[in-house]
Design brief:
The protein has about 425 residues and is of the alpha/beta class. About 50% of the residues lie in helices and about 15% in strands. The chain has nine helices and nine strands. The protein has a six-stranded mixed sheet with strand order 2-3-1-4-5-6, with helices on both faces. Strands 7-8-9 form a three-stranded antiparallel sheet, with no helix packed on it. The radius of gyration is 48 Å and the shape is elongated. One of its GO terms (molecular function) is GTP binding. Pfam families: Septin. Keywords: GTP-binding, Nucleotide-binding. Belongs to the TRAFAC class TrmE-Era-EngA-EngB-Septin-like GTPase superfamily. Septin GTPase family. It comes from Tenebrio molitor (Yellow mealworm beetle).
């Protein structure tokens, strides 16, 4: 069936605003959306990147106020491995499927040149899995477990001297694939004055090297002011703890030192509360949206272009997905036909070569047979001649034998006659 071209009239860009004469009810759509979302639950995936021992697992326990029972990692792994653990959390009537991906062994190798490769491959693999599910004929995106990374917490070692080369290289490789949020780990090991200088140095190095970190959105009026303020606090200097210490009349997460107590949720001690506010309570949905609409779309665009699909043709005119598919299918069939013709020609050539080889072999066999036949005839003739000669010799022998016998008999008779006369 040939495709039919249907001309669609252009839409009028000027929309008409109409006034309702009574209540219709579509003002309940936000409530319906909230109800549906709560019923389906939410998915959020966090990747923690940082050297072993920087407190990644402890910070996750502190952020979600639970114990994920993670296993400590050794410093002796030869390569970087990524381990993903998924948990079901519920707060009030909201269910959250949380996946935490840890980079085990990151930064522990002597040669750190390819430390980022396993991380990039993992993020791309999650995008690829979602793309393959999306391209299926019978797809089930509502039931599909979305494993794309929504937030990447990059833990910076609190050296006070700036970023390491591995930090800059890794964040540069990831900034177009995931929402990167740099944080200074174990901020209680550095003084406040040094911390502010360290933050300024990190921001300057990120800008000088063209690393684009995640910025909290300021286009929403409800969170514009707080997000603008929080963007100036990045990178967050955080502390994590699984221990609870009594301060006054309540138990709080804290780290106990001989010189005093560092409270995790005390904003004068660290930026943990700011990080939790920005990551979970204010911008979690924005990070999910940016992952889908920006990072995944960029990956999807590149992959479809690699497959040969495009929105425009060679003349830069709009082209539909179906037209591209039909063109690729036609080219594919032509290539198959060309390969088939080449194989057929190759087969014919090989058959002719084989026939020539067989004919040459047959010719050699005939020549060999004729030679053997001639040799056999000559040998037979020699044998016949030898036999005839032998027969002649036998006849001659018998003739002479008979002659000698006759001569012997005559001589004996003559001898007897002479004896009688005497």
């Amino acid at each position: 069936m040939a495709p039919v071209d249907v001309e669609i009239p252009p839409m009028d860009n000027q929309l008409r605003n109409l006034i309702l004469s009574g209540h219709v009810g579509f003002d309940s759509l936000p409530d319906q959306l909230v109800s549906k979302s709560v019923q389906n639950g939410f998915v959020f995936n966090i990747m923690c990147i940082g050297e072993t021992g920087l407190g990644k697992s402890t910070l996750m326990d502190s952020l979600f106020n639970t114990n994920f029972e993670s296993i400590p990692s050794p410093h002796t792994l030869p390569t970087v491995k990524l381990k993903a653990h998924t948990y079901e959390l519920q707060e009030s009537n909201v269910r959250l499927k949380l996946t935490i991906v840890d980079t085990v062994g990151y930064g522990d190798q002597i040669n750190k040149e390819d430390s980022f490769k396993a991380i990039v491959d993992y993020i791309d693999a999650q995008f690829e899995n979602y793309l393959q599910e999306e391209l299926k004929i019978k797809r089930s995106l509502s039931a599909y477990h979305d494993s794309r990374i929504h937030a990447c917490l990059y833990f910076i070692c609190p050296t006070g001297h700036g970023l390491k080369s591995i930090d800059l290289v890794c964040m540069k490789k990831l900034d177009q694939k995931v929402n990167v949020i740099p944080i200074i780990a174990k901020a209680d090991t550095i003084s406040k004055t040094e911390l502010q200088k360290f933050k300024s140095k990190i921001v300057a190095e990120l800008q000088n090297n063209g690393v684009h970190i995640y910025e909290f959105p300021v286009d929403d009026e409800s969170v514009s002011e707080v997000n603008t303020s929080m963007n100036s606090h990045v990178p967050f200097a955080v502390i994590g703890s699984t221990d609870f210490v009594r301060v006054g009349n309540k138990m709080v997460r804290a780290r106990q030192y001989p010189w005093g107590t560092v409270q995790v949720e005390n904003e004068s001690h660290c930026d943990f509360v700011k990080l939790r506010e920005m990551l979970i309570r204010t911008n979690m949905e924005d990070m999910r949206e940016k992952t889908h609409c920006r990072h995944y779309e960029l990956y999807r665009k590149k992959r479809l272009e690699q497959m040969g699909f495009s929105d425009v043709d060679a003349d830069n005119k709009p082209i539909s997905f179906q037209q591209t598919f039909e063109a690729k299918r036609s080219n594919h069939l032509q290539e198959l036909q060309q390969k088939e013709d080449e194989m057929r020609q190759m087969f014919v050539v090989r058959v002719k070569e084989k026939e020539a080889e067989l004919k040459e072999a047959e010719k050699e066999l005939h020549a060999k047979f004729d030679k053997l036949k001639k040799d056999h005839t000559d040998e037979k003739k020699k044998i016949e001649d030898s036999r005839k000669k032998l027969e002649d010799e036998i006849v001659e022998f018998n003739r002479r034998k008979a002659q000698y016998q006759q001569m012997g008999s005559s001589h004996h008779t003559l001898t007897l006659g002479k004896s009688k006369k005497k």
